[in-house]
Amino acid sequence: xxxxxxxxxxxxxxxxxxxxxxxxxxxxxxxxxxxxxxxxxxxxxxxxxxxxxxxxxxxxxxxxxxxxxxxxxxxxxxxxxxxxxxxxxxxxxxxxxxxxxxxxxxxxxxxxxxxxxxxxxxxxxxxxxxxxxxxxxxxxxxxxxxxxxxxxxxxxxxxxxxxxxxxxxxxxxxxxxxxxxxxxxxxxxxxxxxxxxxxxxxxxxxxxxxxxxxxxxxxxxxxxxxxxxxxxxxxxxxxxxxxxxxxxxxxxxxxxxxxxxxxxxxxxxxxxxxxxxxxxxxxxxxxxxxxxxxxxxxxxxxxxxxxxxxxxxxxxxxxxxxxxxxxxxxxxxxxxxxxxxxxxxxxxxxxxxxxxxxxxx
Length: 361
Ligand SMILES: Cc1cc2nc3c(=O)[nH]c(=O)nc-3n(C[C@H](O)[C@H](O)[C@H](O)COP(=O)(O)OP(=O)(O)OC[C@H]3O[C@@H](n4cnc5c(N)ncnc54)[C@H](O)[C@@H]3O)c2cc1C
Description:
The protein is α+β, with helices and mostly antiparallel strands.
């Protein structure tokens, strides 16, 4: 069997990359092992244009936000599911200092920061002591519907193998040849021009890309059933309360750089219980507790492009905490690079690590 590209992984990165390449008429094989808790499956799906205690707009957000809106709408149309909705964040200030910080930043970031139209009305559902701000526009992605819907399409198309990609079965061409002379890469009985790794934190051990400055980051969330809370917004008071499936809400998250395992922790569950007891006026029930690693990195910029020494080997990874906005945009840049030799943003292009990646080759 011959395909144009093999893509390893069907999280947000592999889904968008395979969607772009199939749309362009290319033959693609996606190989994904089915894991219950991957970064994409555990993510709340929020695209928030401002970040951190300093409340500053995030890298490239003025470009990423409209791009994401269009990409999720179009992918949703292709699979017949609505994937993106605008859900602004109502940000209850947890301390007087945070209230002040918001007031100071609001005139500077007025494109994204304002005050809720009816703060008094929020008192029906929530306890809060220091007022609230609003982050607007924010978007919510239904990542599960996306992954499942796109998976179905790939199966229909004969483009998905659900198994672990085994590097021992990969034969790569001689790296001293120029990209134009390269013979095909083969994996089992399949030959392909390129293999592109969208394998999240599993890729951190890849012999091709393991020298990149990755950093794993653990995140936990608790799933809570709450009847009667308006699903019009995302709410935040230290932690975020995000509409999940049906009458469920996602509460999270942690950002841990130093952790022993990927299990849900008692400490986080207790933190959520304490917060909810104070914050929510409606009855609620905790129904699940989930955790996964984010494929983050030291620079907070994604890894996109082709290996300087093994030009058949590509990567789309390192999305960190922002996969919902970064993956659609950089999957598009990578596919344009593949199809039309278009430039990849140098801050994301993996060629910035040419020296490091050339070591030992
Ligand atoms: C708790 C938590 C909350 C988050 N919330 C948000 C949020 O609200 N907004 C946001 O923008 N981002 C959020 N993120 C970050 C976001 O989830 C990630 O940036 C994004 O999902 C990364 O997608 P990915 O496709 O690159 O990687 P992954 O989702 O990890 O996908 C990798 C895929 O590759 C497969 N795979 C790996 N190795 C192999 C192999 N050898 N063979 C076959 N398949 C393989 C895996 O099974 C998986 O399906 C959150 C993350 C966490 C953990």
